[in-house]
Amino acid sequence: MWIAALLAVTLLGSVGVMLTPDRYAGKVAAAVSAVPALASVYMYYVFLTQNGGAGNALLSPEGIAFGQQVPWIDLAGYSISYYVGLDGVSMPLLTLTTVLTSLAIVSAWTPISERQSQFYGLMLLMEVSLIGVFAALDFFLWFVFWEGVLIPMYFLIGVWGGPRRKYAAIKFFVYTNVASLVMFAGLFALVFNTDLTSLALPAMAEAFRNASGLPEFAGIGLATISFVLMFVGFAVKVPVFPLHTWLPDAHVEAPTPVSVMLAGVLLKMGTYALLRFNFTMLAETARALAVPLAIVGVVSVIYGAMLALAQRDLKRIVAYSSISSMGYVILGLVAFTPHGMGGATFQMVAHGLISGLMFMTVGVIYNTTHTRMVGDMSGLADRMPWTVGIFVAAAFGYMGLPLMAGFAGEFLIFQGAFDAATLGSAAPLLTSLAMFGIVIVAGYLLWAMQRTLFGGFHLETDYEVGPAAFHDVAPLAVLLLLVIALGVAPDLSYDMIQHAIAPLTGGGA
Amino acid sequence: MIPAQWYLLLSAAVFCIGLFGILTRRNALVFLMSVELMLNAANINFVAFSLQHGNLTGQVFSLFTMALAAAEVAVGVGIILVLYRNFTDVDVTKATTMRW
Amino acid sequence: MSNPWIAIGALAVVGLAIPVSMMTVSSLIRPRVPEQGKTATYESGEVPTGSSQEIKFNIQYYMVALLFVVFDIETVLIFPWTVIYRDAVGAVGMSKILLPMVAFIGVLVVGLGWAWRNGAVRWVRSPRATKGADTYE
Amino acid sequence: MQSAPLPETLAELLGLDPNNTLVMIVMSLIGAALIGSLMMTNTALAGPWAKRKITAAFTDRIAVNRIGPFGLGTIPADAVRLLSKELIVPEGVDRPAWDLAPLIIASTALLGFAVIPMGSGLHLADPEVGLAYVFATASMASIGLIMAGYASNNKYSFLGGLRAVAQNIAYEIPLILTGASVVIFAGSLQMSEIVAAQTQPLIGPLPSWYAFVNPFAFVLFMIANLAEVGRNPFDIPEAPTEIVAGYQTEYSSVYFVLIYLGEFIHIFLGGAIIATIFLGGPAGPGPASLGFIWFMVKIWGVFLFTQWARSAIPRVRIDQLIEIGWKGMLVLSLANLLLTAVIVGVIA
Amino acid sequence: MVQLPTWAALAPALALGVTALALLLIDSVDPDTTNTGLLGGVSVAGSLVSLAFAVWFIFGGTGIPQSEGGQGVATLFNGQLVVDQMALFFMIIVASVTALVTLASTDYVREHAYQAEFYALVLLSASGMAILSAANSLATAFVAFELVSLPSYALVAILKDNRGSVEAGLKYFLIGAVSSAVFAYGISLVYAATGVLRFDAIAAAIDSGTVQTVADGSIQAQSAQVPASILGVGILMVLGGIAFKMAAVPFHFWAPEAYEGSPAPVAAFLSSASKAAGFVLAFRAFAVAFPVGALTASGDVISWFVVFQILAIVTMFVGNFAAATQEKVKRMMAYSSVGHAGYVLIGLAALSASGDGMAFSMSAGMAHLLVYGFMNTGAFLFIALAEYWGVGRRFEDYNGLGRQAPLACAAMTIFLFSLAGLPIGGGFFSKFYLFSATLNVGAWTLAASLVINSALSLFYYSRVVKAMWVEEPTGERSIDSYPTGLYTAIVAAAVVTVLLIPGFGTVSDLAMRAAELL
């Protein structure tokens, strides 16, 4: 019921915003988005205190909180239903979505100047789909939302983006759609080979986990084929090397609030789907393929970091570094240890907050300086102290400074990956390689900060560079507080995450 | 009584003549006539086999075919008329300006 | 009863033979005096101007012809009905046999009325007669 | 009076086997020749002689009284005169269409008589679809007319041909629909059936001829028939005062004779149809052997009617013609059809 | 529910036909002045009445056996026409498309000289489609088929001073005339082989292998044998005639020309309703009259579903690849409609040699046709709106249209993405339905080409979306009027397209039931 309300409110809100005149659109949108944000925070509180969902929504039905199921379509012998619910994995991500959306909307007040009502309406529309993605427990419902995210995103990048926005938008659109088709094919190859009668995710998980006698093609089991297809499909969203090439374009061309959503939430859709489908439904195959997957993860860690090192554009730096951060998540997931998977999930949330924060800060700086090139500016610290302060904090969070959310996530991942049975002897090597990634991150972030923020002020402008407006800085502050809060008290979400993934790792929390 | 296959051969021949006319002629009116030939080939079959099978279905159908052929001619001549007014020609290959 | 079409065919032969024989007779007895001017087409004694092939005639002829094609074919559909009508009245009752034809002719009449009102059978519709809206030329 | 068709009668007269196809073919040819020459005699009598006499009588003149008794010698004289004239082929005519047209006009009209029961056993053939057949042959003439008009390469002819077709098709439908209303009574398309259906008496001595049973249809049919045969008031295809002689302007010599004959045979065919489906065919007082006489009386009556109309009624304009045809006759004949159906339904 | 007389089951078709006659009468009353509001209103009302009847009947249980609590199949004229669930399903499609098109036309033909004729022709053609969907005999099928075709020829060429329209009309007419001749000849061959024209009787003839005859409604077997070769040729020719109506390869050549040249509402009408009419005939004929199981059993007669598989794949690829290379939006839509014909052909192609899976695949095709009816009509009506505004015909002419007409463009976006199979409209589900139908019988090639072509179609559909929203407006374009009728129709179509996501369950149930009862 709660989730239906969330969806309904946001959807109506988006329609309403589209109809409001541009002058008020921003404020109205912020007000509208505050509703789901506060609601989801309240839900989070309820979930945390009453611990409504102990367990995994897919594997142990009692793990479903705020659940609701309404029969919908009986199609081709498969019963499809409107089936939503939350567990320890989706609850934090849902909250992350709603909160980040409203903050992004506020941060859009300054940069977005034209066709505002459409912009905010699309933002809210995207929020609807994102909520749906994290809450849906029926494959079709989930897929509707999953694809539904793309359409507003396509417009948001294509219409309000930078100079090469058309190219970026089309690239993003084609990449993700082809990926969806690949995933779809892989999944339904399985569906049609198991005697499913319902497309609810729990039922699918149940059917796939003890599917037997699947056909083989060229000696490779269908499970493996489907696993690979689905992994590829989701990896595009994550993104994982070498399927990441859409990401820098999309990030650089997208306007700040959009890239906040992109980095903060859309990338998590990929890892979330990986966790839900590949690592839950096909856990056996995942364990079997752990080492190559881990290698892929580590490679994208190192590769992303390296590329980031080579960039001059702050936004590109953050974009590539988020590739490397998502590599950690893959590594954590394949570990199949409580700490590894838990850490990975935690990292999703943490990275969502931090990368959002980073992009937002870069955006604020850009709004003032109208450049993102590291070389063009220096010594911003004394002109816009607040922003710079937050930027520094966020950067340290990115490097995994203790007492920041990033630290908890990455630490847990390494801890989990180190003694991962699935990785066997390769575990230490891979983990240490991944750790090396952090060093690189620290390297380029420190370098970039040193070049841009400190030293004597220098920037060719024909206007006076001053501190950013309050409504630009406020969201940054809120985000930073959240980051710190999660860093100080990881249990705020780590507990429920552990509850959720316990059935996966076999071991208890 | 004449065996059925002769009727079949006759109708097939008429049908092919019509088809040939369609494929070779470019005058819309000749085209129309060829179509009439093809329809009447069908009529031959219908009447012949209505006699063969001893039921009236075929003959009734041939009446329908005639009526529809007539209606088709009515519409077709109308279209050919406006074609002539627009292109001052009834050559079906002349009308090749598909643009507004 | 022999096949009546034999006799009809025979009459066709005769019907052709009589005119042909007349032609032959005439061709035997008639004179031939070729002379320039005789062969000019008759235009009330004036010198013929142009050929008759490219004269433009009233489009109404087309309209009437199209109407005829449609209505004449409908009579094809009416005739079988008239033949069986009398027996059918006895067999299935009057309304069952009459009403469909009433509906059929009703549709025809609607079409005729429409054509009538839209001037398909009004003759004076030539472009010179009515300049403007919907002439048929 | 269901009499056997003429060929079989002949075969029996000559004591030959009527089931032998060859015999039948020969007999049919003889019968056809008989009928054909009969009609030619009629027209020969009507065309050069009777027509002129009648017109003269109307206009209070004296005509064709020079050659032979009552000027009957005019008939052979005219025949020789016309046949021996030079055949002028105008330039630019579209041969062979130009040559075929008179042939078609002449012979198609003759074809119709094949199914007409003329009484006294003079009934060449009696197919089940007799009426449809006779209508078909009767309307084939308009093909000849348009051919003649088109092929002559003459503006008068062209207009005449077009007018002829427009008129024929405009009045064809009322004609056929009215005929259909008769079929509703008779319940058959077979000529002998239709004739037989008119034998029993209607009221007192009056036989149930459809002319008496359904006079409305009879009037309609007479008018439509006038238009079909192109006599006043419907003679615009050859309106001499407007378009010289219409489609026959460019024809001379034997071709002219053929067209002329064709028209008259057509008139008699129309008369024959009327006589058969409205006037009880050969029926009449006296023995059945007199049937032929009665039949002749009837078709000559129709001929006289056409000639009377020719002299007595002014010509209509083309627009009036079309409007009468499409707005008057067609609607009336449709109404007549349904009316007849209702009446028959009630009495049956 | 009240028990109506049997003939009343035809009410949806009759409503359309009567409306057409009423329009002619209205025009006869005063031919010189045309009252657009009255004419359009009457037409829309008539089609809505027909729609109401169809919906009432289909939910009232017409066509469901009494044993299952339905009203039973309404059989008319010795089984020449049957009104069952399938007929009603397609009557619904036809009626709703007609309503949309006529509503939109009130603005489109406002300046037109022959409005009454336009509406009357549309409704006549629609009534033909409605009858066609109930035709249970090749005779009625042929007559209805022509009743659909003849008015549509005139409709395509109705802009008689416009070379494009006239040329389109000519080409449509010529190909249509030939295909109807082929159709008639095929029917005559089938009749020659089986001696009957009623579908069930033909099936009986094929089953028993002996010529049948229908005497006062009952089928009786004759002694003569069914010559399989003649029957095969006949079936192929019938298929050819129908393929023309569905605009399937190789009879699709007319489609791009006719759709591009004709007025956009007419194109919408043809590409949606006319296609559906062709398919209902194909479904009924090939499901009832030529059961593939019996045919393959009876030896050397072709098992036609192989033909359909080839046709489907070729049509999909030809349509989509041609569409991807177009420069004009309308032409692109025309080719895409050819491609969609390919998708629906799966309904007849995805079944096994013994005819299994027929109901499943056919219901998938029917569901897709219904969804397609709305989204495709909507897309063409948007093109009509663009023509109404004098916007050009090429992609770049649509640049920046989204700023001047956001509502209509949003609707168009929904249509296009739904056509492409994104889950923003019912198109996603119907495509998935077809997809699972192919996998159901393991027709992998079909499944693969369906997926490939959907991906490809996304590319060229998104070109229009890109032009409307992303691109900057080029040149000066002044949009001053926002025609109510067109807008209403487009928005209505868009709403239905979106509502078909939650409502698809009903549609698929209806389709499944209809196909199973067949």
TrEMBL record, chain A:
Cellular compartments per GO CC: membrane
A GO term for molecular function: ubiquinone binding
Keyword Repressor: no
Compartment(s) of residence: Membrane
Topology within the bilayer: Multi-pass membrane protein
UniProt keyword Transmembrane helix, yes or no: yes
InterPro entries the record matches: NADH_Q_OxRdtase_chainM/4 (IPR010227), NADH_UbQ_OxRdtase (IPR003918), ND/Mrp_TM (IPR001750)
Annotated TM spans: 91-112, 119-137, 143-160, 172-192, 217-236, 257-277, 289-310, 317-336, 348-367, 388-414, 426-447, 468-489
NADH:quinone oxidoreductase/Mrp antiporter transmembrane domain location: 136-422
Keyword field: Membrane, Transmembrane, Transmembrane helix
Predominant location: membrane
Any GO BP: ATP synthesis coupled electron transport
Superkingdom as given in the UniProt entry: Archaea
UniProt record similarity statement: Belongs to the complex I subunit 4 family.
Protein known as: NuoM family protein
Organism: Haloarcula limicola
Lineage: Archaea, Methanobacteriati, Methanobacteriota, Stenosarchaea group, Halobacteria
UniProtKB/TrEMBL annotation, chain B:
Classification via Pfam families: Oxidored_q2
Top enzyme class: oxidoreductase
Keywords, ordered alphabetically: Membrane, Oxidoreductase, Transmembrane, Transmembrane helix, Transport
Topological category with respect to the lipid bilayer: Multi-pass membrane protein
Official protein name in the record: NADH-quinone oxidoreductase subunit NuoK
Primary localisation category: membrane
Family per record: Belongs to the complex I subunit 4L family.
Species annotation: Haloarcula limicola
Transmembrane portions of the chain: 6-23, 30-51, 63-84
Keyword Transmembrane helix set for record: yes
Biological processes per GO annotation: ATP synthesis coupled electron transport
Organism phylogeny: Archaea, Methanobacteriati, Methanobacteriota, Stenosarchaea group, Halobacteria
TrEMBL record, chain D:
Protein name: NADH-quinone oxidoreductase subunit H
GO cellular component, one term: membrane
Membrane topology: Multi-pass membrane protein
Keywords, comma-separated and alphabetical: Membrane, Transmembrane, Transmembrane helix
Location(s) in or outside the cell: Membrane
Highest classification ranks of the organism: Archaea, Methanobacteriati, Methanobacteriota, Stenosarchaea group, Halobacteria
An example molecular function term from Gene Ontology annotations: NADH dehydrogenase activity
Segments passing through the bilayer: 22-45, 100-118, 130-148, 169-189, 209-227, 254-279, 291-309, 329-347
GO biological process, one term: aerobic respiration
Keyword Transmembrane listed: yes
UniProtKB/TrEMBL annotation, chain E:
GO term, biological process aspect, one: ATP synthesis coupled electron transport
Keyword Ion transport: no
Protein species of origin: Haloarcula limicola
UniProt membrane topology term: Multi-pass membrane protein
Keyword Secreted belongs to the record: no
Name of the molecule in the record: NADH-quinone oxidoreductase subunit N
Membrane-spanning residues: 6-26, 38-59, 86-106, 118-135, 141-160, 172-193, 230-255, 276-295, 301-322, 334-353, 365-386, 407-429, 441-461, 482-504
Location of this chain's protein in the cell: Membrane
Gene Ontology CC annotations of this record: membrane
Lineage per the UniProt record: Archaea, Methanobacteriati, Methanobacteriota, Stenosarchaea group, Halobacteria
Primary location class: membrane
Highest taxon of source: Archaea
Alphabetical UniProt keywords: Membrane, Transmembrane, Transmembrane helix
Any one Gene Ontology molecular-function term assigned to this protein's record: NADH dehydrogenase (ubiquinone) activity
Every NADH:quinone oxidoreductase/Mrp antiporter transmembrane domain range: 135-456
HAMAP family per UniProt: NDH1_NuoN_1
Pfam families for the chain: Proton_antipo_M
